[in-house]
Design a protein that fits this description.
Blueprint: H1 16-27, E1 46-52, H2 58-72, E2 77-79, E3 87-92, H3 94-100, E4 107-110, H4 115-121, E5 138-143, H5 148-163, H6 188-197, H7 208-222, H8 239-249, H9 255-272, H10 277-290, H11 295-310, H12 316-332, H13 336-352, H14 356-372, H15 376-394, H16 397-408
Parallel strand pairs: 1-2, 1-3, 3-5
Antiparallel strand pairs: 4-5
Protein name: ATP-dependent transcriptional regulator
InterPro entries: DUF2927 (IPR021323)
Length: 413
């Protein structure tokens, strides 16, 4: 099994004016749309402990994440073996998590120490983020019986929420604070958001107006490269678009209803002028759903998705996801050279993003393309490399076989 060792986060590229707006929308709203009256954060040093039955890769991945938070977000955060830590990472079975929140792969909650306690208090003020005046005790529940990458992804997403913003914004191209699940590890933008959250000029209890008045000075100090003219002011994401996308991608939606939901989302995106990553993501979702029954429609959707992603900065990883799908379709149409063109251009992006699942899928597709092109020796080597990353991305051999076949249409073995 191969693992990532050197983080390669790209710094935030948007203007500080845009980042300030993003920060306020992330900090003072929840995913439900509920407004928060005041920001909250930990005040003082932050300790993190691990409990439960962690998988063999959880602690090393947590240590790497904590090191990044110290180096990039400049947080005073360290692991402890003391039971009464600021943040507890509780490793439990996936089935236990889903008994508490059926749709969740992992979750974070304040003022509880177990899933049983959470289930008893989930609709009370004890676990109400809006009732907090500061953050003192938070528990992250992560699965211990899934792939190393899925556990790591949970650590990044839930620890980021434990420390900072509770909201996600679909308009963000370069952030883990986005429900599109394109980014799975903390980005340069995310580290800037967390560093801003813990800037000395801010504190728990501040209102949106108070924070907004301090942000220009904070961001000018922390991100001097962002002192430039802002880009276009992107429209807010309409609730009806969110509902249709959730229906299109949600596990509870019958398959026959998913593509129509995605097409309705496309109409809404066009109506509201969401000509950014949200339009690209809508087309990408249509492609994924259409390729079951209509390869031509799927290819057109992927081309449209790539066009919108290419027109927006910070979308290299989005385009790598598109490339994996286009390459798979090209191989089904016996066009290995087109597949290789897309694959080779996007392997470095998947590696920089530390996405072993995507990286292994691209490598498997590369192996198939080389095989179709008559380069059998190179094809075998690429397949071996694919499996080494797949162990981290998917876990067991059985899961690797099933997931890679689902992602690429080809067997990894």
């Amino acid at each position: 099994m191969r693992v990532f060792s050197h983080p390669q986060a790209t710094p935030a590229s948007r203007s500080n004016t845009e980042i300030a707006r993003d920060f306020l929308d992330l900090t003072f709203r929840m995913e439900s749309g509920r407004h928060l009256k005041a920001m909250t954060r930990f005040e003082g040093p932050i300790s993190v402990t691990v409990k439960g039955d962690p998988s063999s890769t959880l602690v090393p991945d947590l240590e790497r994440l904590l090191l990044r938070l110290r180096n990039e977000a400049h947080l005073n955060i360290n692991r402890t073996y003391e039971p009464d830590a600021s943040i507890t990472v509780m490793a439990v079975r996936r089935s236990d998590i889903q008994k508490a929140i059926p749709s969740a792969a992992c979750f974070v909650a304040p003022n509880v120490s177990s899933i049983a306690e959470y289930r008893l208090t989930r609709r009370t003020k004890i676990t109400d983020w809006g009732s907090l005046d500061t953050r003192r005790k938070i528990t992250i529940f992560v699965p211990n019986d899934t792939s190393p990458q899925e556990t790591r992804d949970c650590l990044h997403e839930e620890l980021a929420q434990a420390l900072g913003p509770l909201n996600d914004l679909y308009r963000l191209p370069d952030s883990i604070f986005n429900d599109d699940n394109i980014h799975t590890v903390l980005t340069g933008f995310d580290m800037l958001v967390l560093r801003t959250t813990y800037a000395p000029e801010l504190s728990s209890g501040m209102t949106r107006t108070q924070v907004a008045s301090r942000l220009p000075g904070i961001l000018a100090r922390l991100n001097p490269a962002g002192e430039k003219a802002p880009g276009p002011n992107l429209p807010y994401t309409p609730d009806e678009w969110k509902r249709e996308m959730i229906a299109a991608l949600g596990v509870g939606t019958p398959m026959a209803q998913r593509l129509p939901a995605a097409e309705r989302a496309l109409h809404i995106a066009q109506l509201y002028g969401l000509n950014d990553v949200r339009m690209g993501f809508t087309w990408f979702s249509i492609g994924r759903l259409a390729q079951r029954t209509d390869l031509d429609m799927a290819m057109k959707a992927y081309m449209n998705a790539d066009q919108y992603f290419a027109a927006n900065a910070g979308t290299e990883l989005h385009r790598a996801h598109v490339a994996s799908q286009v390459a798979a379709l090209a191989l089904r149409q016996d066009n290995p050279m087109l597949a290789l063109q897309y694959i080779e251009a996007n392997l470095p992006t998947a590696n920089r993003a530390e996405n072993a699942a995507l990286l292994s899928a691209l490598m498997l597709l590369r192996s198939e393309a080389l095989k179709q092109a008559g380069m059998a020796t190179d094809a075998r080597s690429a397949r071996v490399d694919s499996l080494a990353w797949a162990r981290y991305g998917f876990g067991s051999e059985r899961e690797t076989r099933q997931r890679l076949r689902a992602m690429t249409g080809f067997s990894p073995l």
